[in-house]
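Task: sequence design from structure.
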């Protein structure tokens, strides 16, 4: 008999088999072994994990040999949608094989992975409940009976002579005892990484083969590509750093960082930090280090590691992508950008004959030399039970990971992130570079809050050994705390700022940045400053920037502000925290609402960014509109005030000391129960739970999604109206998804805002087929949308919305 894994429908509507089952299994195994990293180390004595992977892959589709599945696949009667289920048979066989090998834990892991290879990973207790179910046992017995006559063919295909004797139902009592013992006596964080790694290899290999998407063989890359663009850096130990200009300081820093690669034991180091001031060229310095490290690994291990570069925000992802492309453009490296607005059609070295679903699969499984992605993609794959995301989990193994702007991560997640990165390096042998200008205590907190209980520590290597000296070189800016100058109601504080504080410290010839904690406050300040300029007859251009305006306008506005700064017309920008990271704008002075010290330092990085000696000590004034506690919490507000109010002025040379004192105060008084709870869930394989407050793995999110927000499409002009029509045509099938994604998706998403629901009364759904997106039609645009400040918000609401 011929057994198929997949089928196809001809133009005449006839269903036929499209791939032999044994060919599919061989293809999945080839994919899995191709992506297997030989350096992984799960500390399993006398166990070859590749043999476990082999058994999982070879047996994952065993149930497809039943006539029930073949009838379903080929649309032949009788079709039984229950009996055609195919995962349980292989899961029981692999369980018995590894139980006989004397390892009940690995037997259960293998069973779980096959059992769930078409769904999410589930907790062991839930797996036990499914196996104990009487209906489940009856289904298996019928499938077992149906497959017995053809076992000799299956044995031949699979190359396993013991399938017959292992094709039995598990001993429920013994299985429950093993699971209970595991949960009570034998939990280990290693199990989480082992499960997710093997599951990822299985499902990635399965999906690549099923979609006929070829895997990508990574190439060696020229380790001197950054040198080619910027010149080879050099360190002179006798150099007086105070005599260097900013470009020379960048050169010094890059030389010192890559100089570590000359150490004999550098390949034994897996976690690095790169601490440097804003504007010092960390992006290219880290890439230079990564390319040269990749070359050393290739020689030592005969393995080409993937470089993964993760950032928090879309605007700096796209900025980083441009920098990478300019540096690597002449090479044949395949750079994948994987984030919300990623262009699936722009993958290098694509064949024109590849279909859309294959291009999408290549992106979703990171088939490339270098991946540039978001923190959401990176961390929600790292701590995850979802099939869709876990396809790429195995790519962390042996990779070089660069994490930029890590200070943007939630404080209560810092220990969890630190400990997860530690074990990623320990078990999957990832090399991790943490880049920041503010040195958050991620690894210190991980050790203090979690790792000490595991009898482990983290010892990162600081790549910029002279970072304290480098910080001390800069006098670009100075922070001036003015925390007591505003008082009274929110309206009174806005008026005091616009009529007294702003005019006192600003000069008409100076460009100025004003950063507020909330959208509502930023709009009020914009209107007040606009009124002030009008009353004084001043012609300084004024701009507004926040997530309250559409992404397409944000991009256009940043370009317009950059041009205004270049022309020297002294623009004024009122913004929220969207300017704190990765926005390459350079103002003469600024104001920032009281907030976290690391956020304040990031805003300072937009002032005298290019180190103009004529603007030495450019001021950033810290004022208090009274909303810090409501946005960032009481602890942050208290510690920020304590750190600032001791000083009348804080020079940039002292920023690192200020940041360290702030983080120590925050860390000593914070509760990190959430981090510990998530870690315990990972350790015990609590992949899911009905109550999110139990913090199962499935509940982890980098950005908390609120049900209080609504997506709204803004019709800004006739072009936007056409986009709405094209979206409608996709919904009703007049435009297929591939065409929409290729020609319209990015533009469509750049017209969408996330708006608090209380402001959306009166808006209707974009069309009757999609209730998740509302629309501001062009004819009502000015009723709901201000072209300067964005979505019109009810002034009676407190409007405490960040960004």
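Answer:
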């Amino acid at each position: 008999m011929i057994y198929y894994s997949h089928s196809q429908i001809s133009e005449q509507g006839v269903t036929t088999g499209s791939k032999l089952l044994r060919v599919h299994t061989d293809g999945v195994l080839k994919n899995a072994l191709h992506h297997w990293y030989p350096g992984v180390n799960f500390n399993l004595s006398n166990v070859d994990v590749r043999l476990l992977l082999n058994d999982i892959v070879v047996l994952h589709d065993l149930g497809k040999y039943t006539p029930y599945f073949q009838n379903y696949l080929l649309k032949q009667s009788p079709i039984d949608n229950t009996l055609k289920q195919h995962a349980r048979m292989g899961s029981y066989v692999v369980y018995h094989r590894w139980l006989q090998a004397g390892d009940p834990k690995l037997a259960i892991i293998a069973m779980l992975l096959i059992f769930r290879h078409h769904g999410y990973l589930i907790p062991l207790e839930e797996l036990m409940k499914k196996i104990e179910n009487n209906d489940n046992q009856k289904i298996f017995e019928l499938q077992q009976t149906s497959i017995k006559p053809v076992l000799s063919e299956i044995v031949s295909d699979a190359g396993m002579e013991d399938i017959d004797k292992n094709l039995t139902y598990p001993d429920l009592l013994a299985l429950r005892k093993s699971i209970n013992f595991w949960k009570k006596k034998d939990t280990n964080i290693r199990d989480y990484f082992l499960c997710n790694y093997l599951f990822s290899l299985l499902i990635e290999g399965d999906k690549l083969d099923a979609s006929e998407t070829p895997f990508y063989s990574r190439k060696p890359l020229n380790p001197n590509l950054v040198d080619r663009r910027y010149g080879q850096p050099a360190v002179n130990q006798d150099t007086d750093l105070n005599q260097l200009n900013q470009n020379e300081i960048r050169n010094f820093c890059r030389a010192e960082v890559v100089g570590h690669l000359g150490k004999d034991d550098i390949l034994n180091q897996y976690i690095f930090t790169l601490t440097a001031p804003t504007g010092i060229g960390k992006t290219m310095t880290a890439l230079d280090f990564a390319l040269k490290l990749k070359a050393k690994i290739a020689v030592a291990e005969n393995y080409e590691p993937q470089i993964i570069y993760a950032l928090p925000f879309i605007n700096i992802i796209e900025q980083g992508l441009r920098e990478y492309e300019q540096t690597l453009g002449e090479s044949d490296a395949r750079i994948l950008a994987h984030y919300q607005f990623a262009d699936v059609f722009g993958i290098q070295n694509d064949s024109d004959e590849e279909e859309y679903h294959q291009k999408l699969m290549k992106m979703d499984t990171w088939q490339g030399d270098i991946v540039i992605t978001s923190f959401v993609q990176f961390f929600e794959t790292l701590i995850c039970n979802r099939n869709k995301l876990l396809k790429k989990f195995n790519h962390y193994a042996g990779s070089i990971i660069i994490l930029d702007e890590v200070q943007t991560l939630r404080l209560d997640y810092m220990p969890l992130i630190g400990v997860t990165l530690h074990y990623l390096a320990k078990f999957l042998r990832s090399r991790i570079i943490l880049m920041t200008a503010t040195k958050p205590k991620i690894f210190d907190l991980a050790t203090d809050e979690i790792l000490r209980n595991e009898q482990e520590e983290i010892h990162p290597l600081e790549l910029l050994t002279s970072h304290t000296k480098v910080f001390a070189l800069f006098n670009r800016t100075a922070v001036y705390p003015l925390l007591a100058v505003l008082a009274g109601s929110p309206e009174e504080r806005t008026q005091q700022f616009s009529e007294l504080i702003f005019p006192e410290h600003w000069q008409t010839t100076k460009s100025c940045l004003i950063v507020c904690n909330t959208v509502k406050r930023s709009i009020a300040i914009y209107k007040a400053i606009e009124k002030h300029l009008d009353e004084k007859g001043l012609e300084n251009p004024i701009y507004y920037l926040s997530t309250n305006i559409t992404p397409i306008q944000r991009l256009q506005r940043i370009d317009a502000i950059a041009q205004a700064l270049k022309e020297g017309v002294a623009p004024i920008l009122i913004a929220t925290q969207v300017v704190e990271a990765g926005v390459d704008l350079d103002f003469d002075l600024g104001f920032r609402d009281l907030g976290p010290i690391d956020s304040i330092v990031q805003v300072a990085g937009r002032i005298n960014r290019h180190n103009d000696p004529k603007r030495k000590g450019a001021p950033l004034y810290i004022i208090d509109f009274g909303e810090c506690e409501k946005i960032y919490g009481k602890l942050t507000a208290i510690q920020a005030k304590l750190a600032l109010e001791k000083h009348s002025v804080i020079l940039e040379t002292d920023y690192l000391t200020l940041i360290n004192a702030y983080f120590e105060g925050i860390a000593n008084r914070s509760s990190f129960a959430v981090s510990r709870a998530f870690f315990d869930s990972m350790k015990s394989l609590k992949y899911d739970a009905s109550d999110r407050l139990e913090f199962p793995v499935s509940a982890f999110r980098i950005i908390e999604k609120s049900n209080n927000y609504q997506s709204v499409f803004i019709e800004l002009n006739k072009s936007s109206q056409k986009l709405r029509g094209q979206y409608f045509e996709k919904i009703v099938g007049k435009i297929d998804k591939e065409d929409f994604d290729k020609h319209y998706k990015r533009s469509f998403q750049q017209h969408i805002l996330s708006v608090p629901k209380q402001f959306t009364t009166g808006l209707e759904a974009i069309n009757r087929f999609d209730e998740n997106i509302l629309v501001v039609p062009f004819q009502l645009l000015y009723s709901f949308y201000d072209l300067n400040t964005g979505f019109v918000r009810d002034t009676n609401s407190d409007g405490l919305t960040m960004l």
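The chain is about 45% helix and 10% strand.
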